[in-house]
Hints:
Elements: H1 3-27, E1 37-46, E2 52-55, E3 68-76, E4 83-85, E5 92-94, E6 99-104, E7 107-111, E8 117-118, E9 124-125, E10 133-134, E11 137-138, E12 153-155, E13 160-163, E14 166-170, E15 173-175, E16 182-186, E17 189-192, E18 200-201, E19 207-209, E20 211-213, H2 219-253
Amino acid sequence: MSGEIYMAAAAALAYEKRMEVIANNLANVNTAGFKRDDVAFQAYLSSASGAAAPVYPPYPAAQAGASFWVSYESRTDFSPGPLQQTGNTFDLALNGNGFFNVESPDGGVYTRRGNFTLSSEGVLVTQEGWPVQGTSGEIRVEGRNAGPGGLDFSVGEDGTVRVNGRDAGRLRIENFPGAGSLVKIGHGYFKPASAAAAAEPLEEVRIAQGFLEMSNVEAVRAMTEMIEILRGYESYQRVIRSVDEANAKSINEVGRTS
């Protein structure tokens, strides 16, 4: 493969990876608690000794060929999404930093998706049935059928849970101040990226009951990026086609005499 085609193909692949990420963002534009992903790219060039060194624009000449490549990584944008009022007593939104702590079958995980419910045992759980953690363990709702008006379940702005006028615990809200401390595991859940990424209790908590934090994906911006990516991808396709046609013409004309 010629150096020109190789470098154009590497750039086209980078556009393809970016398109995949943005398409996933758009698919979750209405998913509560979803955090958009961005893609970061870095070009590398192998030296004569074989060591990889990052390179920046303007990039080397196409003769670099297979010694030039582009790597990418996906990064999650944890900026807050808009709050949407639902009126559901068990819907909770974090108005600020922090994550809800949830006990999954594989251990503790974190989420901003607050569409909770009650299990048959009276435990506050996620849609998957995973217990939402309080500062003293699970949040249990006792006497949920008491009183002529039914269940009186309320959550204060500081995360204090009250059931029929009695304290039932306080939600365990934790934060990860370091960038890249959390990685996605799907369905709006995150886990620490490493053992060194320790959660910190968040003292100043603001919780809105009857609200959900929606996705932080901006649909118009994402659609604009998709159009830009498609045009860029097509331009590199044209480069590959032009180089291929030029090479074919050169080969066919080798040995011809005027």
